[in-house]
Design brief:
homodimer, 214 residues, mainly alpha, 7 helices, 0% strand, flat, membrane (chain B), lipid biosynthesis (chain B), lipid metabolism (chain B), transmembrane helix (chain B), CDP-OH_PTrfase_TM_dom (chain B)
Amino acid sequence: MEDSTIEDSPKQRNWPIYLYIPNIIGYARIIANVAAFGVAFTNKKLFAILYFASFVCDELDGRFARMFNQKSTFGAVLDMVTDRVSTAALLVLLTHFYKSHYGLFLGLLALDISSHWLQMFSTHLSSKASHKDMGDSKSTLLRLYYQHRYFMGYCAIGAEVARHAVAERTVYGIVLVIALPGCAIKQLVNLVQMKTAADVCVRYDTHRYSSKSQ
Amino acid sequence: MRGLSPMAQLSEWLSPTKNCLLFSTLQESTFGAVLDMVTDRVSTAALLVLLTHFYKSHYGLFLGLLALDISSHWLQMYSTFLSSKASHKDMGDSKSTLLRLYYQHRFFMGYCAIGAEVAYILLYMLAAEGNIGSPYEVTCRSIGNGTVYGILLAIALPGCAIKQLVNLVQMKTAADVCVNYDYARHNSKAQ
């Protein structure tokens, strides 16, 4: 995860940004994700290991960026895009594992895409108004959906077990019951944020037209 | 599992047409542009998810196309925001620069975008009507048989392929914008 301020000491100028250590970790994370979803149907244990490896990379790249003073806008965007794609891939996986409730997970995918897209747009429009750096607003977005993504990862890994677990009251079942309200609240928050973000878009146009007519 | 209704299929076909209509009338709004973009993203994603189900053996191909669609559009969007900040241009003005480019190459871009959506819908139709096999087998068979779907697929597929290449190229260009943004900021600080 990247922090808000992006600083580059003069020493780093000769080190190409694409080869910054946290960005290389970012590439490793992508490879781990690709490998994980490649085996998602054939080898669930391997999927769990690879997905956990990508989660470790996600944790490390932020720390390394701070440690080596190698924060970059590209790194922040890479992080964000990888999160978006891996959430989408997880939801696709769930449409396959819970085929009878395909609509639920497709709906969650639609909600995820729309709410984050609208939020990104409205953040951009507000930052233009307040002259804030686009990079600063990125970490709030990341924090918002990070928890949601952990739950999705857990769901995919525990899909087979979870189906029987609630009835048998095993550990997975109990954790699932605890995590579900959080997941539900997150979706409600997504919905609310979509409306708020859409309002920002409308207000942006209204202000533009009213300042033009003055 | 319900498939796409005829109305949903129709709205898929109309989406690029709707874009043309939107910009030709004067009822542009930022919210409308965002709504349009979001609808495109979600409907493409949903179509690709459908295809992972109908061609389960080639699940990876359609998941990969979904990943490419999401990442390239997100990167493009982010880099557009960064460039417009760097040049202090108004969001509306940079939108019209994009529009100007779009109109210059409108027909070719339209063909590629429509080609991709049409190819996905046709693959769905072919699978839904009981054609079994990999997407490659189904495509070759329908083109070889010279059915309506086959002919349309033969026309649409090059556009679809070009669209994916363009997506890849735009990812690299957008990433470069992110990198140059940092260099420009650092240089202006050093001065």
